[in-house]
Amino acid sequence: MATYKEIFGTNIEVLASDPANPVEGxxxxxxxxxxxxxxxxxxxxxxxxxxxxxxxxxxGNADGTQTxxxxxxxxxxxxxxxxxxTKNETELYNGTSWTEVNNLNLSRGGGAxxxxxxxxxxxxxxxxxxTPTPANKGETETWNGTSWTEVADMNSARANIAGAxxxxxxxxxxxxxxxxxWNGSAWTEVGDLNTGREGLAGAGVDNxxxxxxxGDPxxxxxxxxxxWNGTSWTExxxxxxxxxxxxxxxxxTAALAIGGVYLSPGGTVASNAAxxWNGSAWYTxxxxxxxxxxxxxxxxxxSTAGLVTGxxxxxxxxxxxxATEEFTKPSFTVKTITSS
Length: 340
Known about the structure:
This protein has about 350 residues and is mainly beta. The protein contains 1 helix and 34 strands. The longest helix has 5 residues, at about 5-10.
């Protein structure tokens, strides 16, 4: 008979108290109660259709909550190589519809930004421009609820990166192993990722607490997950589906991985997979209604109330979407596991 670790890839955790955000099938040993417990699903979580973006595009950054979100930048296809036509549009979401507001100063796609910001305080950094000459950028802009302001550039211009944090305390990582910390006025190079990659996703509330997952290290898509403690990155359990150009939302210990592209028996295809992270392992969640990639950090909200919008629905032929979906996390009850 297969062991628990052989099935789930990890040992049963020993915890002093029950986890705050258990996921379906999670099992742990409560050392205070001296019993083995598990999380049983009581309702079915799903993705519901929300209001469409005004401008269909991918590789922008989403920030805020499920009912009060911001989406900035991105790109559309077809366009000049090596990417599409970059955009500077900014849109705000009220839980029902998107409204166009003031544009970014620099049109770009493949950048990243804060994941715990809001409609009135957000940051966008890095990315790629395609005109007049394709180039990676290090420009950083902050949003005050009305307009974008250019602030200090990153030390290394790059695209297809991930971000975490808020407007005064952010982290930019990926495209090689590079990692930079933002303190509200300047960028500082800090500890590198263990695995260099691009097209990864991120989650986290500040520049001392972040999660990096997925991406492409140049040797094939990966599901590798790393956790940042303000000083260094630690490798943790891999995602169930290795993929790149996916979206991320949530925190270091309660994240959501959304969409992307993965390698199927028939080739590279857009994914509708969603997984939730509980601090030690990934668990499969309900699938997106529209499979898509080039989300590039396009995930707002939390692991229990996430939001995803835009992206590319076809790897074979560019097909940008403006579809928005809202995720509702299943609710669980904690049960004691007995031998009978």
